[in-house]
Amino acid sequence: MNSIFCADSTPNFLNIFDLSIAPTLLFYTYIPVIIISTFLGFYVYIKSNTLEGKLFSIITALFGLWIIDVLMLWIVAYNNIIMFSWQITPAFEVPLFIFIIYFIYVATDKEKRDIPIVLKSFFLALMTVVFLLLPTNFNIPFYNNNINTCEGILGILWGFIYIFEIVAVAWVIGLCIKRYHLSPKTEPFRKEILYLGSGMTFFMILFIGPNIIGQLTNIQLISLWDSLGMIIFLSFLVFIIVKFKTFNIKLIATQALVWGLTALIGSQFFFIKVTTNFVLNGIGFLVSIILGRYLIKSVKKEIQQREQLALLNVSLQDLLKQRESLVHLITHKVKGSFTHSKYIFDGIINGTFGEATQEIKTWAEKGLESDNMGIETVDLVLNVANMQKGIIKYDMKNVDFKEIVLQSIIDKKVSAEAKGLKLESEITDGVYNVFGDPIWLKEVVNNLIENSIKYTREGSITVGLKDGNKKILLSVKDTGVGITEEDKKNLFAEGGRGKESLKINIDSTGYGLYSVKLILEAHKGRVWVESEVGKGSTFFVELVAI
Fold first, then answer.
1. For 364-390, what is the mean pLDDT?
2. What is the rounded CA–CA span in Å between residue 212 and residue 216?
3. pLDDT per residue over 252-263, tens digit each?
4. CATH of segment(s) 397-544
């Protein structure tokens, strides 16, 4: 046998390789992994313009070169090529771990900032030292090409390499934990750090562990499992690409993983010799294709839905801004017009412009009443808009809610009697102290009583108040038209005007009860209604007593 070949190998493939000496596990673990990682890395490189995308591509390239180098050690028949492969292994392995650290630094930073120049200098110096030591005895001091062995003997450089790799694992874990705790608990990026850090940690541990164990036990087959860490990392990566849109490459990540795993199963056909195993593998291969297509289709659908939601969200934000601008324009311009005409009507009534006839004064009084209603409506809409944005600041303090209710009854008694309605009260003895803003709580009571007056043609309105169980319960009961079940659904929503209510009050805006709900939510209270069409309604307000 020619001395330039390993004693146990013959170059039976392309006159360079001997595939017969390679263990079957080699092809199962290395070939699908290098296909998946290289494909994904290349796609990220051409599709992503971010620093983390470029760093990920470098990691997959280095990992791919490292796998090729290891494959050379297993299947090349020539001694000189194998010796060269032994010597250049650190040229891929050390930079791989350096760029992993670099990648984690950038990927776990919300701002995606680059690492400090000092750290770059340290990494560069470390790689320079490793490259200078490649052709020395510190790397591979002796190459054994005896009959049963064709392998290099590792030098002291490898001891430092393994130490550095262990430190790199701890470095990545520590960095991820730090960035995770620095991120707000409600921030989705926090979970992205968790998934990314977990996947990378699995990859690094599975990369280092089998290599070290294989060297210590001299069982080289153990080292073949080191590439499986990349599958775990890529699985985590595909998940966060889909969930968090890392690198913004979306569907292609899932396709790469699915078809890569399918290729892994399909590759077993070349090594199966038992018919039963061939059939079982065939079934698994078909199932992986069917489920893979279903998964890709599902992910594609999810991505499309998310993109549509994102577009709708942008459109909604634009509409909200436009509505906000429109509300402020209307409230200020329209309120200004109402105020201007209000003073004109008031001047006619008071004789500011000269003596007017009684008929003109009557019409001026109607105009003044209409203007006041218009101003109240504008103020209501503006208040609701400010409540939604959280602009309104409540002057919270201890107040007697009973006094607020009694004052509202007095204020509304005249308008109730003007319609021929009785406005009564049923207030039980007790302490009715609450923590709230007296002005806005009075707005709640006034609104409910006014509503009952508007929608009651005849009969009475009864305002009730009772305390118990650390709760205060206000009720406003009327004998009005009642509310249909359909109208109840939107009664406390923005613009929630009921069909029946519009028949009674054509000026209804649908903002009154909505403002009541917003005010009570700010006071940790709630509002609801019980009603039957034709038999009246009862509105309830519950507040926390102090």
1. 76
2. 6
3. 556 666 666 676
4. 3.30.565.10
